[in-house]
Amino acid sequence: MPAPAFVDALNEQIANEFAASQQYVAVAVHYDADTLPRLAAFFYRQAVEERGHALKMVQYLMDQDAEVVIPAVAAPRNGFADIVEPIQLALEQEKQVTQQIERLAKVAREAGDYQSEQFIQWFLKEQVEEVATMSDLLTTVTRAKENPLWVEEFLARESFGGEDDEAGAPPTAGGDR
Ligand code: FEO
């Protein structure tokens, strides 16, 4: 069994990951309503990834015979002033998630729960990529603030953001990614 403190912290993180997913749906809808389909598609994809992170955590708890509590989720922010603001929010969110994942690693290590410590390693690596991607996107969008179509062309041209690195990824409840 994983350490009880880790189980509690991971259940809290499941709520954070679902909340991140909802926030990215809200951002995607903002861009979609503004007819910026590439930006919208990027955030719809990110939303699916965050849901996947939550379900990887759910699967781990089930595999370890620990209690899983599917949580209520904090309301996302809707309504943004321009095309830059949602990505500033997204970058802040990713930095916050990084701190949350680091805390989970610390809880596992301090409890001597080596399996949980190993489980959380993939998420630490994933956060490096997600913060870097969001930071690059913020630079791009800030540069093109007055010309959103330039961002759309950029996203169409470059393979940007990609998908989770599935190599060594923990399994996802329900079998999706
Ligand atoms: Fe699942 Fe980007 O945090």
UniProtKB/TrEMBL annotation:
Q: Name one Pfam family in it.
A: Ferritin
Entry-linked PROSITE patterns: FERRITIN_LIKE (PS50905)
Task: Specify whether Transmembrane helix is a keyword of the entry.
Answer: no
Q: Which residues form the Ferritin-like diiron domain?
A: 1-145
Please list where the region (Disordered) is annotated: 157-177
Instruction: Tell me which InterPro entries the record gives.
Output: Ferritin, Ferritin-like, Ferritin-like_diiron, Ferritin-like_SF, Ferritin_DPS_dom, Ferritin_prok
Tell me which UniProt keywords the record has, alphabetically. Iron, Iron storage, Metal-binding, Oxidoreductase
For this entry, the protein name equals Ferritin
Q: Which organism is it from?
A: Patulibacter brassicae
